[in-house]
C-alpha cells in the first residue's frame, strides 16, 4: 500500500483531496457533523473487521508476502514506463497548460500566415 501511495502523482492527489476534505469540514458545520459521524462509523467497522480478519491474515502471511513482492516489482516497472507517476499534480497541470498554450500559439501563427 505504501508503494502505491509513494509516486508523487498519487501522493499529491491524495494531499489535494485531503486538504479539500478538511477545508470543507471547516467551512460547513452541517457537513462537518455528517463527516464526523461517517468517520466514526468507518473507524468502528475497521476495528471490528481487523479483529476478525487477523487470524486469517496470520495464516495467509507467506502468500501475502509473495503477492506483495510480485506487486512491488510490477509497480517498479510501471514507474519506469510511466515517469508521469513521479510528478506532482501541480507539475502535470503546469506542463499540460504549457503544451496547450504552445499548440494554440502554433495554430495562431499558422492561421495568421
UniProtKB/TrEMBL annotation:
Source organism, top-level taxon: Eukaryota
Any Pfam family matching the protein: Perilipin
Keyword Endoplasmic reticulum: no
Principal place of residence: other
One GO cellular component, as annotated: cytosol
GO BP terms in the entry: lipid storage; positive regulation of triglyceride storage
Localization (cell): Lipid droplet
Keywords of this entry: Lipid droplet
Protein family membership: Belongs to the perilipin family.
PANTHER family xref list: PERILIPIN, PERILIPIN-RELATED
Entry protein name: PLIN3 protein
Provenance organism: Bucco capensis (collared puffbird)
Source lineage: Eukaryota, Metazoa, Chordata, Craniata, Vertebrata
Amino acid at each position: 500500500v505504501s508503494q502505491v501511495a509513494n509516486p508523487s502523482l498519487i501522493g499529491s492527489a491524495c494531499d489535494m483531496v485531503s486538504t479539500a476534505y478538511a477545508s470543507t469540514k471547516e467551512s460547513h458545520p452541517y457537513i462537518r457533523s455528517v463527516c464526523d459521524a461517517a468517520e466514526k462509523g468507518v473507524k468502528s467497522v475497521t476495528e471490528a473487521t481487523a479483529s476478525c480478519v487477523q487470524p486469517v491474515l496470520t495464516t495467509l502471511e507467506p502468500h501475502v508476502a509473495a503477492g506483495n513482492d510480485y506487486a512491488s516489482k510490477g509497480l517498479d516497472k510501471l514507474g519506469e514506463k510511466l515517469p508521469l507517476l513521479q510528478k506532482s499534480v501541480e507539475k502535470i497541470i503546469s506542463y499540460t497548460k504549457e503544451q496547450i498554450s504552445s499548440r494554440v500559439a502554433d495554430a495562431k501563427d499558422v492561421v495568421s500566415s
